């Protein structure tokens, strides 16, 4: 018996680099299993063809419907801040008990045990690390996990889908 799994992919999608990275990650996720369907919002031209028109309600309804159909959400947290749409989608997933696996690959995480970097925290404007909104991160961790590499992301997805199969 084949068990279909639906994954919602939440990521920033307004720069070409975002679109390409999302596409890159989704190709890897889709390659994990033929049982997977992955909703990548940028592929939904009805609401995300930026030369056309979709109002806020159309976008909210289309993406929320897909979140609610999902067995799992994959969310990219990278960027200057967590993308506002991604944060909203994480909130919907949390409220509905949909597990979230988030990728946070910011290189400023490295060196967390470096004494100079830690000492710099006490000097104004010398934070060597990146800050993420703790509320949004907390929602992820309450019903999922944050990983730091693409490899860890793919492994976590495989594990989550195995657990959901039981």
Automatic annotation (TrEMBL):
SUPFAM superfamilies per the UniProt record, alphabetical: N-(deoxy)ribosyltransferase-like
Protein name: Nucleoside 2-deoxyribosyltransferase
Pfam families: Nuc_deoxyrib_tr
Domain of life assignment: Bacteria
């Amino acid at each position: 018996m084949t068990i279909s799994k639906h994954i919602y992919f939440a990521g920033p999608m307004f720069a070409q680099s975002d679109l390409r990275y999302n596409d890159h990650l989704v190709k890897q996720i889709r390659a994990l299993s033929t049982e997977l369907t992955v909703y990548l919002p940028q592929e939904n031209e009805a609401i995300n063809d930026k030369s056309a028109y979709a109002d806020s309600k159309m976008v909210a309804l289309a993406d929320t419907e897909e979140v609610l159909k999902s067995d799992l959400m994959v969310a990219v947290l990278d960027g200057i801040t967590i993308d506002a749409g991604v944060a909203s989608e994480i909130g919907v997933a949390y409220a509905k008990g949909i597990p979230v696996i988030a990728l946070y690959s910011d290189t400023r995480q490295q060196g967390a045990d470096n004494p100079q970097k830690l000492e710099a925290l006490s000097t104004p404007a010398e934070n060597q690390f990146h800050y993420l909104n703790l509320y949004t991160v907390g929602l992820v961790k309450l019903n999922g996990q944050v990983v730091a590499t693409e490899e860890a992301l793919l492994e976590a997805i495989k594990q989550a889908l195995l657990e959901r199969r039981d």
